[in-house]
């Protein structure tokens, strides 16, 4: 069965600083990996996903993530944080297309000026 | 508008009430899902439907009863709920590796 671990339930950065949100997964088959963002009182918005091919994935709003099979990781990064990036971020895994996503516990990103 | 529409957005119900949550997608997706998001727990998968057939029930109490009349609609019927059932209920649909989530229904059980 798949599982996802997000290290750090809360990350705080200054505006303009590097954002790094950590995600490690467990899967018995090559995984599909996702990052979602959730703003207060809203649903989940897809930031990026990895299915096959290039291991460095670029998403919306300047975010990117790299699939590292040897480390079973899919960390999310952004070179320069904006105040508008403050939100809850979720990493998710599925073992094949059409099966349910399994989510990590989420990381709250705070951005200070 | 995300492509997956959930109604109502907010619902307050007593423990003896019966209510239903509705989810609708016109993306042509063949799989639909119910998730529960509560304050202190991660997103919990509740039910999975593929081509209108339930393929997964994640040990959900029987006071939650899903219904999928066609590939575009998914309901969650609620009865005799408990206060701990208060949460955000999210619906999602998928086709291949493309998953789309609705904005959720915020449920409060009083």
Short structural summary:
The complex is a heterodimer of chains A (113) and B (110). Chain A is mainly beta.
Radius of gyration of chain A: 13 Å
Q: Which sheet architecture does the biggest sheet of chain A show?
A: 6 strands, mixed
Radius of gyration of chain B: 13 Å
Number of continuous helical runs of chain A? 0
**Termini Cα gap of chain A:** 41 Å
Report the uncertain regions of chain B: none
**Helix/strand structural class of chain A:** mainly beta
Strand content of chain B: over 45%
Estimate percent helicity of chain A: under 10%
Q: What is the 3D shape of chain B?
A: globular
End-to-end Cα distance of chain B: 30 Å
The SSE order of chain A reads EEEEEEEEEEE
Poorly predicted segments of chain A: none
In terms of quaternary structure, the protein is heterodimer
- By DSSP (H or I, 4+ residues per run), the number of helices of chain B equals 0
Helix proportion of chain B: under 10%
Structural class of chain B: mainly beta
| Chain pair with largest interface | A-B, 23 and 25 residues
Tell me about this structure.
The complex is a heterodimer of chains A (113) and B (110). Chain A has 113 residues and is an all-beta fold. The relative contact order of chain A is 0.34. Chain A has strands spanning 3-7, 10-14, 19-26, 32-38, 44-50, 56-58, 64-68, 73-78, 87-94, 102-103, 107-112. Chain A is 0% helix and 55% strand. With 110 residues, chain B is an all-beta fold. Chain B is 0% helix and 61% strand. Chain B has no helices and eleven strands. Chain B has strands at 4-7, 10-13, 18-25, 31-37, 44-50, 53-57, 64-70, 73-79, 87-95, 98-101, 105-109. Chain B is globular, with a radius of gyration of 13 Å.
